[in-house]
Amino acid sequence: MSLRIQELGWRATPMGEISLRRRWDPAARTDVYEIKLDDEFLMSSLFVAVEVEVARIALAELRAAGPPPEGGYDVAVGGLGLGHTALTVLEDDAVRSLVVVEALQEVIDWHEEKLIPAGETLTADARCHLSQGDFFARAADPAEGLAGAEGPPSDTPGARFHAVVVDIDHSPRHLLNPAHAPFYEVEGTRRLAEHLRPGGVFTLWSNDPPDEDYLDVLRGVFTGVRAEVVSFPNPYQERPATNTVYVGSKPRD
After folding, report:
1. Which domain holds residue 224?
2. How far apart are CA 52 and CA 70, in angstroms?
3. Residue 72 domain-assigned (yes or no)
């Protein structure tokens, strides 16, 4: 059992004060790692089921469409957080490369300094590259590429990804920054699709119930669009909690 609350890292950033802390949770009877931005909780290791599912669903969708390509899948993840989405991607041995785009260098530093448990695995896996940058700005510019200067291995110019997995904003309506809003509109979704290979898969985590307006946006660009509601136990409630994973695939032609 750790100290009840231990601050592991703190820095002032242009977005606000970001902090990493570890606390003993008596209800769950485990150490919980949390990242906060000012007074807002961004991530908690107590609730990671959907962070795992948003990656698992993307990879399962790829496999359902056919065998992995020669060499393997190239995957991009928007948002590093506590690393559970990235870890899930790397658990698939068909993944050739993973680029994780994280806005805050502080979060990357905490992984590299092993202050966050996932950092041990992420920094030791040669397939994984942690890239500091604005995911939404990169998504809006297909010419730059999501990975910035370091794209995935590819024999084609302007390398694209087999899957793009995003876990940043609370939902398509509850944004960490109003500047992210164009990403959830039709034109922003079209630009995102340009980062995917034909048949590539896009998945998005949301804390809210399925949003029909956003599903309509996705249907204007992707095929096989759906919202999967994922349930998971919440030790503070007498009923399961739910989040949403949005799924869509880029047409092959």
Report:
1. 47-249
2. 25
3. yes
